[in-house]
Design the sequence.
């Protein structure tokens, strides 16, 4: 494996770990996500789009809804690290 791939794998692992840690914070303490933040607005728009925005819904996300995004982020981070491990195990990108 070349040094270029090692650098790419290192960046992937660091980004996956950052995603896992941030998602764990959101999962365990959803109130830490401020309604004025960009991510809160993104989650709100994504939640409404996923639900089809039908009917009268609350103007804010519940803690349970925010936790769904936290769980999803943890899963994506774990998959990112698994991809790196598989790449290292196979000895090629």
Sequence:
């Amino acid at each position: 494996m070349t040094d270029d791939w090692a650098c790419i794998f290192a960046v992937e692992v660091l980004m996956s770990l950052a995603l896992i840690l941030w998602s764990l914070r959101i999962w365990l303490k959803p109130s830490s996500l401020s309604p004025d933040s960009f991510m809160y607005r993104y989650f709100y728009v994504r939640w409404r789009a996923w639900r089809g925005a039908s009917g009268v819904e609350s103007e804010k996300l519940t803690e349970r809804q925010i936790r769904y995004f936290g769980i999803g982020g943890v899963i994506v981070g774990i998959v990112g690290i698994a991809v790196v491990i598989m790449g290292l195990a196979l000895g090629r990108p």
Observations:
- Helices lie at 3-28, 38-51, 63-90.
- The chain is about 75% helix and 0% strand.
- Residues 63-90 form the longest helix (28 residues).
